[in-house]
Amino acid sequence: MNNNIIIKVKLIILILVLNTNLIISAQEITNPEDTEVWGPTPLLINTPSQSLPSDAIILFNEKSLDNWKKLDGSKALWSVAKDTFTIKPGTGDIITNQEFADVQLHIEWRTPIVENVMGQNRGNSGIFFQQRYELQILDSFKNKTYVNGQAGSIYKQFSPLVNASKKSGIWQTYDIIFIAPTFNIDKSVKTNASMTVFHNGVLIQYNSTLKGSTTYIGLPEYEFHGKDSILLQDHGSKVSFRNIWAREL
Questions:
Q1: Beta bridge pairs of residue 183
Q2: Which residues contact 34 (CB under 8 A, 6 or more apart)?
Q3: What percent of the chain has a predicted confidence (pLDDT) above 70?
């Protein structure tokens, strides 16, 4: 036999052996209970009509910003009225007191009605997970800008699958699953961060794998870190927020 024939024969034998093993393994399971998993039992939670899970962490209690602070640890200075708080331009970003890794976040936001303003200056803010990974907030209803910087973009990395934006002055929602990056002992990246996002109930990011921390200039890259706060950005626009809650995953 020449070498090519020998190789083909070996491959055929290997395929037959593998297929035989698979058939035997499948035939060995004759009891349906052998493939049933009974534990650990998932935690039972309640989901009332307002869709607030019973295990949710309330990040805004409709009365104060006690669950938030400025970057230097001092009191958050954004304006609170009724069940809403609004960016007070020039007072700086705010972050949650609690730090998170993998998290589900629900947040409702509203961009202000402004005239003769277009692009990135119209209702601009952002949600930064672990103070590093930004999901963009912007008035993107008939507002032309670069698509990886419009509402629902993972800023400068991924454009949204569709534009689900409503007009300015109307409340909108984000429901976000953020999976934090993990790192090896030597502080190199083990697994990248990812996001899945629904904007007003519409899927706009599906398991998007982040290339690193958000950057305005240059390309994103990772830096070693642990759990960290969620940050809301003061970009100079009077964006309002309400009904914010999170679930640790």
A1: 189
A2: none
A3: 84
Mean pLDDT, residues 132-152: 95
Please name the residues in contact with 4: beta carbons below 8 A apart, sequence gap of 6 or more: none
The predicted pLDDT at position 60 comes to 95
Q: What is the pLDDT, as a whole number, of residue 226?
A: 97
Q: What is the pLDDT of residue 9?
A: 47
Alpha-carbon distance 135 to 242, whole Å?
17
Length of the chain: 249
Asked if residue 138 and residue 29 are part of one domain, the reply reads no
Whether residues 62 and 28 share a domain: the answer is no
DSSP secondary-structure letter at 24? H
The two structure tokens encoding residue 17: 């052996």
**Rounded Cα–Cα distance for residues 117 and 187 (Å):** 43
Residues 12 and 102 in one domain: no
Q: How far apart are CA 171 and CA 120, in angstroms?
A: 19
Nearest Cα residue to 210 out of 130, 140, 141: 130
> What sections of the chain are H helices per DSSP?
3-28
Same domain, 65 and 177: yes
The pTM for the full model equals 0.84
Q: List, in sequence order, every residue forming a beta bridge with 248; answer none if it has no partner.
A: 103
Q: Is pLDDT of 44 > 70? A: no
Q: Identify any residues that bridge with 209 across adjacent strands, giving them in sequence order.
A: 194
- Write out the residue range of the structural domain in which residue 31 sits: 3-35
- Kindly tell me if the per-residue pLDDT of 48 is higher than 50: yes
Specify the pLDDT at position 42: 75
